Structure formats: C-alpha cells, structure tokens
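Lab notebook: predicted structure, single chain.

Context: the supervisor wants predicted structures on file for every construct in the current expression panel, including those that have not yet been purified. This is the next one on the list. No modifications to the sequence; it matches the entry in the shared construct table.
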Amino acid sequence: MNILNLFNRQPKQLLLEAPACSHSWNLFSKTYAAPKPANEHIPESSFERVIFGVTTFLWECMNCGTLRQEQALGSDDSQLAEVLDKAERLGIQYINYNGKRFGIALVPQGEGNVPLR
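Prediction complete. Output recorded below exactly as produced.
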C-alpha cells in the first residue's frame, strides 16, 4: 500500500504485517488428565490417551505473546514421587512386581532402624 507524504509528495510503503518474531518460549501452564479405568469400550483413536493419561503444556512467547499448545502421553512427573506422596498422606503403599510384594512407608527420622516384618 502506498501513501503520499503530505510535505514532499513522495510515496511511502506502509508495513502492514508485523516483523517475524524469533520466539522465546516460556512454560505458561501445565495440566495432567489422569488415566481412567477402562470400564467400557474405548474408541481406538483415544485408547492410548485414556489408558496413559495426557499432559498438556501451554507455552507463551516472551517476545510477542503467541501461545502454543503441546500434548504428551502420560505424566512428566516421576511415578516414584507420586507413590511417595501417597505414602506420606495415606500410609503404607503396596506394590506387586514380578510376583513379589513391596511396601513403601514413611519412617520418622531420628528413630534409627525400624524392623519390618
């Protein structure tokens, strides 16, 4: 688009588009949809999402404010951290693995070794 400069009658080119941004992404939000029990028929298109859960990341460009969304199967949090949190809140947690049963519990510090049977 051209416009005449009113003082010297020279046409000028107007810039109608913003210059391209060299994005600098920052994590704006992260949400996790936990897996659901498969009680009914699950469509094949969403089977993995229902079984493993989905983590959604929302990124924001620090330069221009553009938002970008990414999704990943499962959680980016450690499963160990989740089990330890449950043991702290709810008491001992049992895990069956390869035919063996393991118990994870919070043991108060300063009491030395506590025998488990």
